[in-house]
Amino acid sequence: MGLAQLSSHSRAQTARAYISLTKPRIIELLLVTTVPTMVVADRGIPSVWLMAATVIGGALAAGGANAINMYADRDIDRLMERTKHRPLATGQIAPRRALAFAIALEALAFAWLWGFVNLLSAALALSATAFYVFVYTLWLKRTSSRNIVIGGAAGAVPVLVGWSAVTNSLDWAPLLLFGLIFYWTPPHFWALAIRYRDDYQAANVPMLPAVASTRTTAVRMIGYTVVLWALSVLFSAVGGMGAIYLASAIVLGGVFLCLAVQVLRAQTEAAAMRLFSYSISYITLLFGAMVVDQLVRTGV
């Protein structure tokens, strides 16, 4: 391989490392909730440009927040099997450069959303980053077993951004969606944390499954799932949804609860990972049902 090829290969590796700082898979999940919320707020399909601008701005903001999280957690990432290959843990990217990259993404996200969407959406996206970094990453993650419960609120903000992008305001419907994501987050994340309990113990991070029994964790997961199910059904009335969404919310929530109960009964990593995998499908299908419901009702 020649010098030019080596240089090109090195640049590609560096680019991939910077992209990995943003945690693309998490960004995808956040954006899955943003666009359907925009459809519900618009009672139809918003302009393609508005959707694109909101998604781009939201992705930039989430990517910046995730990169700051990696910067702050680089010490414990080296101790955990699941995270030890991250670019800051391996030294592939210098911490100072990663932080500069993250701040640049946040500045660009705010300017982009303010310029192409509206100030409310820009402010909401920035507030989510501030909450995720200062409340969750720097404070709760290493000090409280309720870290993901409170800190997970940051992941619920994209629905507010999506709604405000269309209406330039907030209402009870987006606040209910915020609550839905808020209550979805603990059972979703705790299911994964059961699988990686040893990692969190090694890094001295008090994630609930690392400091409590699987039974205790599963009981709390069931409690949050019941509230999640109730909120998803309530949104049918508050959000003006139809039969397609309501039926989907009932069925999807019922399956979620059954899988959470299975975690309590089996108390195994396998049962927990089944719930974790389903939780991702759940949020995708539920918000997808919102879109289908609105398009059918409006005849689009």
Order of helices and strands: HHHHHHHHHHHHHHH
Low-pLDDT windows of residues: none
- Number of helical runs? 15
Helix percentage range: over 70%
Task: Supply the CATH architecture.
Answer: Orthogonal Bundle
Instruction: Supply Rg.
Output: 20 Å
Count of domain modules:
1
User: Strand fraction band?
Assistant: under 5%
Please characterize this protein's 3D structure.
The structure is a single chain. The protein has helices spanning 3-21, 24-42, 48-72, 74-77, 87-90, 95-116, 119-140, 147-151, 157-167, 172-195, 197-202, 208-211, 214-238, 243-266, 269-298. It is an all-alpha fold. It has a single domain, classed as Farnesyl Diphosphate Synthase (Orthogonal Bundle). Helix 10 (172-195) packs antiparallel against helix 15 (269-298).
Question: Could you outline the blueprint of secondary structure elements for this entry?
Answer:
Layout: H1 3-21, H2 24-42, H3 48-72, H4 74-77, H5 87-90, H6 95-116, H7 119-140, H8 147-151, H9 157-167, H10 172-195, H11 197-202, H12 208-211, H13 214-238, H14 243-266, H15 269-298
